[in-house]
Description:
Blueprint: H1 2-27, H2 31-46, H3 49-72, H4 79-102, E1 112-116, H5 122-133, E2 142-143, H6 158-165, E3 170-176, H7 184-196, E4 199-204, H8 213-216, E5 227-228, H9 233-250, H10 256-269
Amino acid sequence: MRRNITMDNLKRLELEYEGIRGTILDYTSEGNIVSFLDGLKKQIDIKDIEAITYYINEICAWYEKNINQIYENEFAVDPSAHDRNKKILEEIQAEFQMKKKIGKGEKKMYSKIFLSHNSFDKKYGDAIRNLLMSLGLRKEQLIYTTHPLHKIPAGNNIFEYLKQNIQKDIFVIFLWSNEYLKSAACLNEMGAAWIVESDYINMYTPDFDFNNPQYHNCAVDVRQMGVVLKNDEHCKMGMVELKQKLIQNLGLEIDEQEWIYSLDEFMKNIK
């Protein structure tokens, strides 16, 4: 039944899209909102519900910020049309969020997240850490040894601690870099995750050398799609997809407005 409701809203969005786009573009050609509209159209075409939700949230946030200015602008053609747009998008947004809540009772797959990295790449590790925490993670749900709140507890041997914690129910983020491949400790972490068959995602620093033979001889499947940490749309969508995966498998509830802000900050911080 929920699937039908979602598809009904998707069909409604398809029918309303051109009118929503036209009304907004009659008012402004500002870069961010045009990008959100273009992204929404692309995701409607491929029916990616998670990505559609992201762009709807962004457009709703734009309306929250600008609706009063639209009504005060004497050159705005039909302010009531913007009210209609806002209402349609908020209704669809609420329906998609309700669908998420219904799935909340499903069994959790992950107990915590392990950010496997080389301390040389702290800039990127910290950016990932801050974005993850905006999802509502408790500090003990993240192992990130470079950060004081997520380091190995005092009195523990680092290798024994990781051995105990790297289990099948941990989700691993491999932060690949040229320095990562030089570190025996990092490669051991990867091997441990591979042995217990932990779920994982590959992330790459912008200067990573994909032609390095050592990379292609590593334990994990490097053919699996990953995220290159560049300030571009591919990276942004990769983080949106990761967000949904973690929400579902950790049983998290998030504040969408905080998430949107944190994602924007993340994109700035990885420049």
